[in-house]
Amino acid sequence: MTGDLNGRSVIVTGAGSGIGRAAALAFAAQGDRVVVADLNADGADAIVTEIEQAGGTAVTVTGDLGEQDVVDRVTATAVERFGGVDVLVNNAGIMDSMSAPADVSDAEWNRVLRVNLTAPFMLTRAVLPHMLAAGRGVIVNTASEAALRGSAAGAAYTASKHGVVGLTKSLAVMYRKNGIRTNAICPGGTATAIAVEADRTAHGPTAIGPHFVNLGRVSQPEEQAAAILFLASDAANNINGAILPVDDGWSAV
Ligand SMILES: NC(=O)c1ccc[n+]([C@@H]2O[C@H](COP(=O)([O-])OP(=O)(O)OC[C@H]3O[C@@H](n4cnc5c(N)ncnc54)[C@H](O)[C@@H]3O)[C@@H](O)[C@H]2O)c1
To answer: What are the pLDDT digits (tens) for 194-249?
Structure first.
């Protein structure tokens, strides 16, 4: 990953923890400048401090990415501080309650779809004019194993992550002639702070599925970050609209 020491302007959402944190650290380590966007101010500030102490450049934008004013602040910060948006990583996300479709409340559906699908759409819409003006840009979305199958989460999370795949493919097709590439990673189980809002077995095998016994080893956030950095690098210049499982073969089972 040492070929991209070009000081790109990179936005990473959910960078206060887990996969986003690992990605922010890795981008900064190769010389990119990072907007750390997260709801959690303490987590975001801690990672910015860590980046700065290592000699890198990063800035925090705190807030709920489902709010338009937060989306606008994230975009404006990247443009004003770092001169544009070269890379957008839509990574912030939340789990659901593992509810089967008949059991999903309006509150659960709206909360999960808003954070996992609507917020990435809003931030993407906000940065696109800057990427279009520059004639280039890279977007990497964090989807999930639950974007590939129906048994890895509840209905709301599964639908939200399938939606992220649809958004990814739409962006890839619509902007291929504008120098903008969009891809997604689909992490399998990864050792982060993400919390399931309910007993994982609350809805039995219909929600969990037999694949859980085959899910492979739990990955480290750095392994997911490595895939994000690859897709954001020039080495992936001909990769557009790809949905990449990073799951120790779970999706191959
Ligand atoms: N950990 C896994 O096993 C796993 C598997 C598949 C996919 N994913 C996906 O990976 C992504 C990162 O999750 P993680 O595992 O690193 O979890 P995490 O909880 O460690 O990190 C997620 C971060 O997103 C932030 N966030 C949540 N809602 C937000 C909002 N509305 N606005 C701004 N920030 C918000 C949180 O504060 C947190 O810092 C998510 O999209 C998740 O769905 C994770």
So the answer is: 877 665 555 554 445 555 566 778 999 999 999 999 999 999 999 999 999 999 99
> Ligand 1 pocket by C-beta < 6 Å: which residues?
13-14, 16-20, 38-40, 43, 64-66, 91-94, 115, 119, 142, 144-145, 187, 189-190, 192-194
User: Does residue 252 belong to any structural domain of this protein?
Assistant: no
Q: What DSSP letter does each residue of 23-58 carry, written as one string?
A: HHHHHHHTT-EEEEEES-HHHHHHHHHHHHHTT-EE
Would 87 be classed as within a structural domain? yes
Helices (H), the chain: 18-29, 41-53, 68-82, 106-113, 119-134, 155-174, 204-208, 221-232
Question: Active site residue: 82, 157, 175, 250, which one?
Answer: 157
What is the 91 CA–ligand 1 centroid distance (Å)?
Answer: 6
Distance in Å, CA 190 to ligand 1 centroid: 11
- Closest approach atom of ligand 1 to CA 192: 20
Q: Is residue 90 part of a domain?
A: yes
Asked, for residue 251, whether it belongs to a domain, the answer is no
Ligand 1 atom with least separation from CA of 92: 24
Q: Which atom of ligand 1 is nearest to the CA of 221?
A: 16
pTM value is: 0.95
Kindly give, in sequence order, each residue whose CB lies less than 8 Å from that of residue 30, ignoring residues fewer than 6 positions away.
1, 2, 4, 5, 229
- To the query of whether residue 157 is one of the catalytic residues in this protein, the response is yes
CATH number at residue 26: 3.40.50.720
pLDDT in tens, 117-143: 999 999 999 999 999 999 999 999 999
Count of domains for the chain: 1
Range of the domain at 157: 9-244
